[in-house]
Write a structure and sequence with these properties.
With 186 residues, this protein is α+β, with helices and mostly antiparallel strands. It contains six helices and nine strands. A seven-stranded antiparallel beta sheet has the order 3-4-5-6-7-8-9. Strands 1-2 form a two-stranded antiparallel ribbon.
Length: 186
């Protein structure tokens, strides 16, 4: 009987996800699987508004740890960013940040890229504490946008994925250089 209970305990423990990252009480798994591909947690960061207001905790997942954003953008590999909100945020404020990130990190962006950001913004909703936005780039498919657990759609093209991810780890990340460094594990 004790042996059976021990075996059951081991099975339960092994079935639980392992967490590599905990930041401000938000836990993210050390690895995730997307369409049969394993991604590892590269880093976590806190998005702050002003000095004291924490807005969200982000996690960046890549096929392998990488500190150099240029390598991330050069290769056409799967990636994911999770934004776990620890403060409410209106859709308008979130969308303003997308447009600011696009302008700051993708100078001379095309009208097509602007239309794709317009589409992204049409899917964003007001966010409550505990809600998540998840962006998963899958080569040859596009960037899947999940809002509060629901897939809103997929935006095609690596150019869009790069412009979106540059909002966090580009030359002028909206959340700041410290945020970028934390996501890159620097």
């Amino acid at each position: 009987m004790i042996k059976k209970l021990f075996c059951l305990f081991v099975v339960i423990i092994l079935a639980l996800p392992s967490y590599a990252g905990t930041l401000k009480g938000v836990k993210m798994a050390d690895t995730i699987e997307v369409e049969g591909h394993k991604l590892v947690l590269n880093g976590m960061a806190v998005r702050k508004k002003y000095v004291f207001v924490k807005v969200y905790i982000a996690g960046l997942y890549l096929p392998a740890k990488e500190k150099n954003p240029e390598k991330i953008f050069k290769l056409d590999l799967m990636r994911q960013t999770i934004m776990h909100f620890v403060h409410k945020a209106g859709a308008g404020k979130i969308n303003d940040a997308w447009y600011e990130g696009l302008k700051a990190n993708t100078p001379d962006y095309s009208s097509e890229l602007k239309k794709q950001f317009d589409e992204l913004c049409s899917w964003i909703e007001d966010i409550k504490v505990g809600d998540r936005l998840i962006f998963t780039y899958i080569p040859e498919k596009g960037t899947e946008v999940k809002v509060k657990g629901k897939i809103k759609g997929v935006i095609k093209g690596k150019a869009f994925a790069d412009a979106l991810f540059k909002c966090w780890i580009g030359p002028k990340p909206g959340p700041g250089k410290g945020f970028k460094k934390d996501l890159l594990g620097i």
